[in-house]
Structures are given as structure tokens and as C-alpha cells.
């Protein structure tokens, strides 16, 4: 029975269309090669995104859902004095949304923390650390109107 299965498998491989063999072949000289990271962005950090100016506040992404503020503080404190470590959590479940912020006392410590933790493992997941971008200015909105400019009664 095993001999018959081996024979049919070999025969199926020989009879497969050339396109299918080329598609699943790993030895083809024309196999796909992704573009280098530097071609997709600035060569540092997240591809295709410009770097934020250096600051004492770091944005940390790729966090495990069960990562706590204490674990985040403990991991980053080996590179300097951590003033604040915050994991952004879901309001309903209380689990991490996968990102957080770490604030250091000085720029030098923040640079050491960014270099030391970027691409490292925390709670079994690879995390990424980069300088946090400042929050964009938000204009106050009138609570009586919705996004199209009308209130709930259909009047402007």
C-alpha cells in the first residue's frame, strides 16, 4: 500500500503542469525576492514612515495582550530611569491593545532604551520601540452635532 502511494505521488509530481511546479519550487532561479527595507522607507524603524524627532517618550508596539505596565517598566528600566510606563488597554476586556508608551528622564536614556529594546522579545513577542510622535492638535467639536454637521433632529 505504501509503495503504491509513493508511486502515485511521484507520478503526480511529474504530471503536474509546469506552472504549478514553478509556483511551488524553492530552487527556481526566478524565485521571488522582496525589496530591501531601505527601498520602502528611510531605512530605520517602520518601513515607509518617517522618524519622529528624538524625545524622552518612546512608542512601543508589538506588545503581548497580557503585558502589564509593571513588566513594561521592568524591561525598559535596565536602560535608564523610567518616569512613566503605560500600556494602552481595551476598556471592556482590560487586555493590552498591543502598544504602549515609556517615558525616560533624559534623552540619552531614551536613546539607550530605544536601541536596547527595539526588535527584542518581551513576554514571548517581538516588540518595536521608536520615538513617540507628538499628538496632533484637536479642534473642539460641538457635542450636539454629528460628523455630517447635523444634530440628531436633522437641523444644522
Provide a compact summary of the structure:
The strands form 2 sheets. A 4-stranded antiparallel sheet has the order 2-3-1-6, with helices on one face. A two-stranded antiparallel sheet has the order 4-5. 28% of the residues lie in helices and 19% in strands.
What does this structure look like?
The chain has 156 residues and is of the alpha+beta class. The chain has a domain at 57-131: Alpha-Beta Plaits (2-Layer Sandwich), CATH 3.30.70. The chain has helices spanning 2-15, 18-24, 37-40, 69-76, 107-117; strands spanning 57-61, 82-89, 96-104, 121-122, 125-126, 128-131. The strands form two sheets. A four-stranded antiparallel beta sheet has the order 2-3-1-6, covered by helices on one side. Strands 4-5 form a two-stranded antiparallel sheet.
SSE topology:
Blueprint: H1 2-15, H2 18-24, H3 37-40, E1 57-61, H4 69-76, E2 82-89, E3 96-104, H5 107-117, E4 121-122, E5 125-126, E6 128-131
Antiparallel strand pairs: 1-3, 1-6, 2-3, 4-5
Biased composition (Polar residues): 139-156
Pfam family, one: RRM_1
GO molecular function: RNA binding
CATH level 3 topology of one domain: Alpha-Beta Plaits
**If helices are DSSP runs of H or I spanning 4 or more residues, what is the number of helices?**
5
* Order of secondary-structure elements: HHHEHEEHEEE
Structural class: alpha+beta
Portion of residues within helices: 25-40%
CATH second-level architecture of one domain: 2-Layer Sandwich
Q: What is the C-level CATH assignment of one domain?
A: Alpha Beta
Keywords: RNA-binding
GO molecular function: RNA binding
InterPro entries: Nucleotide-bd_a/b_plait_sf, RBD_domain_sf, RRM_dom
Pfam families: RRM_1 (PF00076)
Amino acid at each position: 500500500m505504501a509503495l503504491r502511494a509513493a508511486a502515485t505521488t511521484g507520478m503526480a509530481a511529474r504530471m503536474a503542469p509546469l506552472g504549478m511546479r514553478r509556483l511551488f519550487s524553492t530552487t527556481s532561479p526566478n524565485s521571488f525576492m522582496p525589496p530591501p527595507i531601505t527601498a520602502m522607507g528611510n531605512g530605520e524603524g517602520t518601513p515607509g514612515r518617517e522618524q519622529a524627532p528624538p524625545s524622552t517618550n518612546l512608542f512601543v508596539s508589538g506588545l503581548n495582550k497580557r503585558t502589564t505596565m509593571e513588566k513594561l517598566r521592568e524591561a525598559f528600566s535596565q536602560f535608564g530611569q523610567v518616569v512613566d510606563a503605560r500600556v494602552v488597554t481595551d476598556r471592556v476586556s482590560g487586555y493590552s491593545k498591543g502598544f504602549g508608551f515609556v517615558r525616560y528622564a533624559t534623552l540619552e536614556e531614551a536613546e539607550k532604551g530605544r536601541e536596547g529594546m527595539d526588535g527584542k522579545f518581551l513576554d514571548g513577542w517581538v516588540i518595536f520601540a521608536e520615538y513617540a510622535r507628538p499628538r496632533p492638535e484637536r479642534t473642539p467639536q460641538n457635542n450636539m452635532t454629528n460628523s455630517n454637521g447635523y444634530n440628531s433632529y436633522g437641523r444644522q
